[in-house]
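User: Please predict the structure of the protein below. I'd like the answer in structure-token form so I can feed it into my own downstream comparison script.

Assistant: Understood. Taking the following sequence of 210 residues as input:
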Amino acid sequence: MTLLPALAFGFVLGVRHATDADHIAAVGTIASNGPSAQRAALVGAWWGVGHSASVLLVGGALVLLRLPMPVRIALALEFVVALMLIVLGLRSLLAQRGNAPASALRPLIVGIVHGLAGSAVLALLLIATTDSALTAAIYLVCFCVGTTAGMATVSALFALPARLGASRAISVERAVRVAAGVASIGIGISIAHRVSVEDGLFAAIPSMTP
């Protein structure tokens, strides 16, 4: 992978990465918390900042050391993401009102967790495709910029239903939050099942019973 393809490919793949179902579901439970497109976009941007911090620190370290993340740790991080999605979904369903401004801390933490879980695959991709630390670093930066821009754009779309149905904004907003909550719980359960049953996260854990 040379320099210019790394720039373009990193940015495009970052935008695509932002549209993963688990990312949209998680951010949707937060970004749907109000009818303002600017506020929703800011939620997505904060998610991108957290995601970028994890990817640059953890993914960058793995690439620099030319080490893959241990499979067990990668699966455990995915399981944490699954639990987080379920919690976010339940919170969205139980929320009574959505007109309070969303704190930057929540999407930031969600982004950090997502970034940690995604660093393993990203590091493997870079280790397999480039031996240049500079190219890998540029790719990671462009990937993070694309991910942040993509999520900010997608998050802003969560405000559109409420804006289009301004006369009944509260009911539309509630419907969006319920849909986001159900999707987040469903995706979280699906990931938890895959990681724990299909991928065997807990299979090799020794029993504590005699």
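That's the full token string. Residues 21-132+152-198 form one domain.
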